[in-house]
Amino acid sequence: MKTILVIGGAGYIGSQMVKLLLTTGCHVVTLDNLSHGYRDAVLGGDFVLGDLANRTELEHLFTRYTFAGVMHFASFIEVGESVRDPGKYYQNNVACTLNLLDTMVAHGCPPFIFSSTAAIFGEPQYVPLDEAHPKQPINPYGRSKWMIEQILTDYDRAYGLKSTCLRYFNAAGADPEGHLGERHDPETHLIPLVLQAASGRRSQITVFGQDYETPDGTCIRDYIHVYDLCQVHLLALEQLLTGKPSVVYNLGNGSGFSVKQVIEMAKEVTGRDIPVVLGQRRSGDPARLVADSTLARQVLGWQPQYADLATIIAHAWQWERRHFKR
Ligand code: UFG
Description:
The chain has helices spanning 12-23, 55-64, 79-84, 86-106, 140-159, 190-199, 226-241, 259-270, 294-300, 309-323; strands at residues 3-7, 27-32, 46-49, 69-72, 112-117, 163-168, 170-172, 205-208, 220-221, 223-225, 247-251, 257-258, 276-279. It is an alpha/beta fold. The site of uridine-5'-diphosphate-4-deoxy-4-fluoro-alpha-D-galactose has 21 residues, from helix 6 and strand 8.
């Protein structure tokens, strides 16, 4: 039985990954410091409370287990916070990841799946964005992820560490079976905030800017179901385990929805009124981010199961209602 290490397995995407890996019969080890994750979100396998900042702990972990693969979800993800406190982001997202990579090199270089982001591209020069699109991140969060992607290229060349970087566009939705979902604190993402406004946990949703160069003036994003993202991780791991070279994939559904369209869809799905306030632009938001995921579909044979926005919102709504008893 393969043992897979999931770092950040108590978080929003990591916990869904642990659940999916368990269904494949893997032995799953979650490493999480619970700074942003929840112990009850880890639905099985071994749980290790620990931190990538601690090299000694990492050394013990890699001595105790022999990992067939490693997946790393434990990054800080808030763009605005990264601008205010870049040190926090470079420390956690870069320095801690380096601790991990060096430990992996010392323990035989198990294949590595890295959670990257569309934020590495910066302001799009063309849309949809393919893997070759220039990388000019405009905030420390995006730069921290792009640094690791470049470090991984060097580690492959020098040490033979094979990796797959998965550049998520807008991860959204919740566990189709209703057990897991988004619990960020504070929440900054559009879909959970809109649903909090629908359930009454929040009084309203503010639309950040309506003067963008898009048909309705609000920003367009490519929302991808968290379950579909995790499926790509499985496929990517299989590829690396068969000895395929390191690779990067952009991950989205290839269709963009504006903030207003998301709110309208949420009204339809929930059947609730959603109070909307029109606000100022949020700094650092590109007008339009849509992924070209042709490569993942062609090479991995990836086929998203929950590509439509209504289903993504419906699953997130199911979670909002069940978990927060609304
Ligand atoms: N938005 C609002 N009101 C809100 C929250 C968001 O109008 O209360 C808008 C944003 O301005 C943006 C869109 O909704 O136009 C989506 O915003 P999110 O915060 O949900 O997602 P982002 O596109 O900003 O961020 C996502 C990931 C980041 C990643 C980024 C890549 O969450 O981790 O994509 O560009 F860095």
